[in-house]
What does this fold into?
Amino acid sequence: MRTLCFWCGLAAAMLCGLLDPVWGYAAVFLLSLLQLALLGGPGASVFLLVHYTTLLTYFSLAPAIQIAQDLSFWEAGVIGTVAHTQALMLLLLYMAGVEAARFGVVDPPLHHIAGIAGTAPAPGAAHPLLLLGLLGAAFAVLLARADLNFVARGLPGEIENPPLDFIVYSTLPKLVVLMCFVALAIHALRQRTATAWCLAALALAAAAIAANPVNTARQILLIGLLPLLIHCLGRSRRWTLAFVVFAAIAGLGPVFNLLSRGSMWGESLATFPYSPDFDAMYVVAALLERAPSPDLGFGRYLLSGFSFVLPRDMKLFPDFDPLGWPAVLGNFSQSNLSLAQFATVFFDFGLPGPLVFGFLLSSLFRRVDRAIDTHGPLSRGYFAALVLLAAYVPFMRGPILGWGPFAASGLIAALLVGALCTGFGPARRALVPRPAANT
It folds into this structure.
């Protein structure tokens, strides 16, 4: 039923988009809502839930209203209907690829995911004091470079820091602090003792200080705190998870943008969907309209986009960066633009690119889905799965905003915290029946 509704809705969105891209994006909005409603069962895919929530946030209602109001970002002017329609078609091809990978996949019933009913809850974090010690060490690293972590960006005389320093002294330790809080919070939810709650509260206070909105990019909050929401709500209160993600980004995103840059530098608060935070499809359409048709990159455009995790002088295939083309640089006032991946693979492989890219990503997340067992023991694999699901939200928004360093740091933090949870835990002895003695 859900699959049939999707393909019928996709066909309707395509027809509406050919008539008017505003109606096409409105159809994507309705299709995303319908899919979220049909994904309400506890055993359904967590990845698809996050996927449609992301579409709802960045790729449906926001571009529909922006196109209808002839909005202009980055001094690029008003984008033509043809370019908006082409951008919508790339999105629909990507959505089709994501769902095509789910053909024949039956979501397992809840008891196959959550374990056998009636069993005792799995142990929480082993030795929570070890996690608290790791949290303290990571927080000390943040204090070692307070200029990176506790001073508002944009101040006169701000020191330019190499990307490696930013990762080592800011991104990674912040995500270690947040993942320690996630582990201790899960432990407290399972143990429900005063000591466990106090340790979780202490970790929450440290996380709030570490992930302050003064200079912290929102990817820190998404990749660091969204895993806890996925753990608590991803299998049960799924509508609540979708609403919280949408409301947090659409509501708090512009507010954090204002706080992090400050009104003293000329910033003003623009709410959803008129904030540049929601310009994803506008940038895709503007690029399609202004850039010449490039030669196929056969993966080099995508690798160039992903290699932003490296310093600029080490960037892979710099000539294959669509955002670096002269036709683009001469038409945008903002140089730190973000291009969605399904648009990048279009330059690499043409129209089949977004379709195949969505198929491969969805196939990968089928494996990630199987690791989401909220009643299972905390482990490196479980934390890594939570981080990958959470990282999908900024990943869809576009990598140029710094998704790579945040996602890589989040995975390192997840593996580190998961190792403490499993490596120092009490030994779990299986009860093996002793063979009967011969008489």
